[in-house]
Every structure is written in structure tokens, then in C-alpha cells.
Amino acid sequence: MAQQQYDIIIVGSGAGGGMATYQLANAGLKVALVEAGAYYDPASDEQRTQLRNPWESPRRGASTRLRPFGDYNACIGGWDLDGEPYTQKDNTDFMWWRGRMLGGRTNHWGRISLRFGPLDFKRKDIDGLGDNWPIGYEDIKPYYDKVDKLIGVFGTNEGLPNDPDGFFLPPPKPRLHELFYIKGARKSGVPVIPARKSMLTKRINAERGVCYYCGQCSRACSIHADFSSSTALIYPALRGGQVDLYTNSMVREVLTDDEGRATGVSFINKEDRQERQLNGRIVILAASACSSARILLNSKSPQHENGLGNSSNHVGRYLHDSTGASRAAFLPELMDRDIYNEDGVGGMHVYSPWWLDNKNLDFPRGYHLEIGGGMGMPSYGFGFAVNQYNEFLGERVGGYGNQLRDDIRKFYGTRLGISCRGESVPQWGNYCELDPTVVDEWGIPVLRFNYQWTDYEIKQARHMQDSMEELLEASGGILLGSKPGADRNYGLTKPGEIIHEVGTTRMGDDAATSVTNEYGQLHDADNVFVVDAGTFVSQADKNPTWTIMALSWRTSDYIIEQMKQQNI
Amino acid sequence: MMKNSESKTEENAKALSRRDALKSLLLAPLAGGVIASTGCASGGDPRSAVQWASLPNSYSYGRTEVEKQRDARLFRESYFREHELVTVAVLCDIILPSDHPNGGALDAGLPEFVEFMVKDRERYKLPIRGGIAGLDAYAIDNFGADFINISEAQRLTLCDRIAYTDVGDAELQPGISFFSLMRNLTLTGYYTTAAGFADLGYQGNTPNIWDGVPEAVLQRHGVAYESEWLAKCVDQSRRDITAEWDDDMNLIS
């Protein structure tokens, strides 16, 4: 079949792919955007789950295998996809999330948008572990600035050394339980500041709406007042006419010529199961850290026998996810509280950035604290263990009859929760590779994971538990459940569970120890780029999305410049 | 926003019309087996109707094709035998009775909700089927008939023994577990309906402008906003003015 020649082929429409699409299409280049999932727009009533009442779902918002974060969550994808298995080596228990929709996981993430700080690019200089990035904060800062203005993020300038200021929209006021947390944090000497999240508390342009505080960002916003790659980047790019969008298209491999340069990609159309090709001058992988690594490893040719970009054997290596742990408390002060609408934005209005110096601790790298609670909308699970807090009041737990209605109101909105998200230390021994025998339903070899936490992460989790206990009690809370001990790795989440996996195609100046250069350009093929979190050398105690977009924009500028100079 | 409040009104109307279509099953002894040999403990004819509001059997709320097919299949299946469904209804009614201005479990269609959840979540199937069988055996031991065929007072006597988690009797633990599960499902099923929202006084899930905790609430709990913090927060009267910054990252609009 006759093939159009694209300037750019982009694989994946999440944060990295969306930003590259927007920048390169706006520069006048002809772009093919290839997405493994279907078209999605939360503004369409057929796809909208926002502002639904729980009784519009027969399971009242309960999770299913198809929607692991609940029936109304915008996610289409998950850890367990039909026909798309992955395998584990030895006793690895890695959880691999895949988004399968236009915009990828940016439709349902927490919108926590944190710049990495100067220290985060040079961790090896500080603790001798892992590697430094080939770039520093000063290289990426102009792009963070531009991302702030283009996408919109609320927050405050606090002048913190490793949590940089930005071009922020104003934050929403704290909720009641958050005021209790603030009091507790002040008492404990832990900093607490307004959250930094990409929701529009103020207008940024004529296209996107301004937040109306339904608290449902995880359902994707029908007025496009929160950031997702599709709403903020891809729809505008599509309107420009420079982008051909291929949905339900599962990329098998990057095709290369006799010189080992990319000529395009092959993909399977999931609707008719037929394989097709796209030809392009430049291929950009933005399929997520592990999916992009998989595509590279599957792109074998005489010139790239070990997989494309893998002459160093580094593709798939240094895979790492954020650490996580959580704890909750009962706030007796909030019993029988006045009921008003405190939905606010989706998730927390306040958080605590990392505040300690690891020199004085028995583990490297930090974590931040995310605060939860409030009078949320009843959904499946509401009313479970209705009066369990009676235990703390010397009253009986259980019962039946109309007094349960009083219990429901008595304990509504009395829970205060903390979740910690921390930085792990990248390890050569933690990696994904092709499973030698297993394929997915499209016949594409699948990934096999090898991943173990080290003592660094386990000791960090122990510290998280101590911090959470102290803060919850200082906030006036009575701790719930028991503190997980060494037998449970101090409540440390499984690798992959936080869905911040990074590092599989890390950047570096040395082609022997990295996959791409500082622009995400493969050392082994100058017209192939990676713009997802695969290029991260280390993760930082911050969520990765803002950095993915800043780097993708930087790579896009580099591509435009290199094309102008006819280098690629 | 207009659109939303209209659709909400429509939903309420639907919920009301659902309530008109009552589903009705008889409380009646099963034929044969243990029940036939034990007969009815309360004497006379125990047959009386248990009724509940019917729930819709199709929904539309942003589903993918795969999800629509799965839900349609769940609606076609039935899991409970009639005796089990009636037992579920009687238990739901005990847990959240209808003698209340906001209605109770049966008004909120709980038996059908419980059955849907049991079909949706495989792990509930055995605990509920086994729980009902265990409850019947316990009722027969104590009062000579299965749970739905003993008197109301006898039912409450049994519930009093299994409704609280602090009961130490080892033999009662499976019953306590089952009753807890039924209480969880009943409350969650009720509070996720319009009636439950009204009962709770829930105020959210609607476009609004969040501008902080009401002053009276702050006072009641003895907390206050820090003035320095508050100064940084959004001025909602300027939310619609397009954001602009100076070169030093200060918002100036």
C-alpha cells in the first residue's frame, strides 16, 4: 500500500508524546501520532464519568479488573490487560500499569506536578550512589517555566532549595482536615505548603475551562480544567491539521535501514488485526518507560542484533519506581461535623516536601507526604466498618437498625490519611527484558521483569512509618491499624505500584553506559528519540510528569534545530 | 452546568419511578429437606410478602464496549436462589429498616444491589451463600425453622448475637463475619443512592466555587487559616481573568 512519508512518527500519546506532538506539529512538521488505545475525550457525554452520581453505576463506583481505581475512574487500562501479559523472573513481583487511551495515564493521574530540584540531577555527587544526569537544573529550568505557563499548575513560591519555585496559579484554600495536618506538621517541625497540581484555579486561555471544584480530576475533566495530554496538547495539535492520529494501533517495532537508521514503525491495527507500516524521517518513542524499552528490544536487525539502541546492553536496565507507604488516623475532633461541600480539587490541597538531610539518616534519598481525608462523595465502600471507631470511644462496634444512620454521620469525614512517595536508588540488577518464550495476543514478545527493593528503600519505608505516626498523632489523630514491621517491609509498596516507573533508556554522555544522549537521542541511531520517563537517570522524590514534559519539549526544540541544520 | 442539574433532576425522577415498581417475593418455607421436617416454629401461616424497589438493569455512564458487554452478561445471570434472595432482603431490612423518613434498604433496592455485587465480585459468592446456610442452621437449632420462617422477635434475638464484633464465642464467628459483610453491603448500597445522599446530607458532586472552610466551622473546631497562607490562595473573584506573570514568577493578574 502506498505510504505517506511523515516527518515525525510519535509512539504513545501520554505526557511525553503529547508534548512532542504539540511542539513539532506547531513547528510545521507532519506528524503521525500512534496510540495503542482508543480515542478519548471526557467532554463527550458518551465517555464522561465526571459528575455522575454513584447510583448511575450498578456497582456504585466499585473497582473492576478493567478499572482498578474504580468504575468512574477515567483510566482505560490497568495492571492486568486482556491479551497483554507480562512475566516475572524468580520472585519478582513487579506491577506494570499500561494506559490504553488517547492521552494515556495523564487522564487519571493525581496531577501532582513537581519540578525536580538542582540536587535531584546530581545525586551521585551527594551520596555516591547511582549516576548523575548529564544535565543540571539550569538546563531544564527554562522548559519547566514554559510548561508551567502552557499547561497551568497551581502552587506557591516558597524559595525552597530543592523544590524550585515556578510560574504558579494560586492554590485553593486548605480543607478542615488539612488545617489539622498543618497544625500537626508545625508541631513536628515538618514543612507543609500548598500542593502543586496541574488544575486551572484561574483561566489560562480561551480553550480550557476554570476548575469548578468537583474533586473528580481522576474521572478526567469535561471542561478540560485539569491537565491531560489529550485535552491540553493533542486536541489543539489535531486542530492544526498537521497530525494524523492512529488509534488502536499497537507498535511492534521500529524499522531500520542498512545503515541502522530508522525508516518508520510497524504496528498492528487492533480492529482488523492487520499489520501496517508508517514511514518517517524521525521516530520518537513515548510509549512509557517499559513499553518503549520493549519496542526497542523487539526492533532487532543485522545492524542492531541486540535490539535498537542496545549496543550498551542498557535498554531495560535501571528500571525504578517510586517507593510508597501509607497510614491513616481517626480525628475525634471532627466527629459529628457540620456537612458542607468541600470537594475542592481532586485530592490534596496541601503537602509536605522532603525536609531532612540524609547525612543524618540510615538511608539515602527522600520522600514527600501527600495528605488525604475529607467529606468525599459516597461511593462503593462508603459505610464499610461503619462504626469501627467506636472502639476508641468505649462503645460497641457493630449493630443494626436506624442508629447506624447516626454512626454514619458521626464518623463522616473524620479520617486523616498520609501517603508517602519516595525516591529509590536505581540498580543495574532491576530491569525488564524480553521473555524468550511468551508473546502477547498480537504475537509480540512480552516483557519479563527482574526487580527487588534494596535495604535503601526498606529503611526509607521504616522512616516513612515513623514520620506518619508522629504527624498523625500531632494532628490530633488516633492511629488506625497496626504499624507494619520488618516482616512486611514496613508497608513498602510493590515496585510498579506507584506507576512512576522510569530509567529503562537512561540518558548519559557515555554511549557505553547509557542509551540516549541528553536530548533523548539514541546513541545508536540518530533519528530515534525517547521522550518518556525511560531517559531518567534517577527519579527524585517528586512525581515524574512535569519533568517528562519539560524534557520532551527540550527534545522537540533540539529536533527542530537539528532538522534545520540538516543533521537529521 | 445547567445541563448537569437537569440531568440530576431526571435521575431523581427515575429513582422515584423505580420505587413504584416494587419487586415482591414471598417469605415461605422451602419444600423438602430440613425445612420440611422442622416445619414452622412461629405457628400458623408465616407467608407474608417482602417487597423492595426494583433497580434498572442497564446503565449508561461512559463505558467501553468491553465493559458494556460484561455488565450485560452480569445482568443476565442470576446467582441467588429465591430463598437466598428473600433472606438477603430480610437481613437488609433489619440492618436499615424502612420506618424512617429517608426510607430504608428495601426502598433503595438493596436485594438487587447485593445480588449484582455478588455476581460482580466472585469473592463474595461463597461467603454469602455459606453465610445464609449457616444462619438457617443456627435458626433451626434455636427456633426450629430457617431464618426467614421464624418470628421477627426470634430473628432479632439471633441478630443480637452476631451483630457485634466483640462477641468472643468461637462458634459465632462465622455468623459475625457474615453479618458484618451484609451490614457493609447494605450501608454502602443505601448511601450510594439519592435517599442515602439525603440521609447523610451530602452536599458535593456539583459545580461550585471552593473558597475555604466556613468561618463558623473554623470557630467550632478552634482552628484558623494562617494569614500568610491565605494571602497566597486563589482570589475567586479573579478566577476568570487570564493568568499573567512578571519575570520573577509573580502572578500579576
Compact overview of the structure:
Chain A contains ten helices and 18 strands.
Task: Describe the protein's architecture and organization.
The complex is a heterodimer of chains A (about 575) and B (about 250). Chain A contains ten helices and 18 strands. Chain A is α/β, with parallel strands linked by helices and about 575 residues long. Chain A folds into two domains: about 1-45 and about 70-85 and about 95-150 and about 225-310 and about 500-568, FAD/NAD(P)-binding domain, CATH 3.50.50; about 160-220 and about 325-375 and about 415-420 and about 455-495, Cholesterol Oxidase, domain 2, CATH 3.30.410. In chain A, the strands form four sheets. In chain A, strands 1, 2, 7, 8, 9, 10 and 18 form a seven-stranded mixed sheet that branches. In chain A, strands 6-12-13-14-11-17 form a six-stranded antiparallel sheet, with helices on one face. The longest helix of chain A has 20 residues, at about 455-475. Chain A is globular, with a radius of gyration of 24 Å. With about 250 residues, chain B is mainly α. Chain B has one domain. Chain B has eleven helices and two strands. Chain B has helices at about 1-20, 35-40, 65-75, 80-95, 110-120, 120-145, 150-160, 175-190, 195-200, 215-220, 225-230; strands spanning about 20-25, 50-55. In chain B, strands 1-2 form a two-stranded antiparallel sheet. Chains A and B meet through helix 4 and helix 8 of A and helix 1, helix 3, helix 5, helix 8 and helix 9 of B.
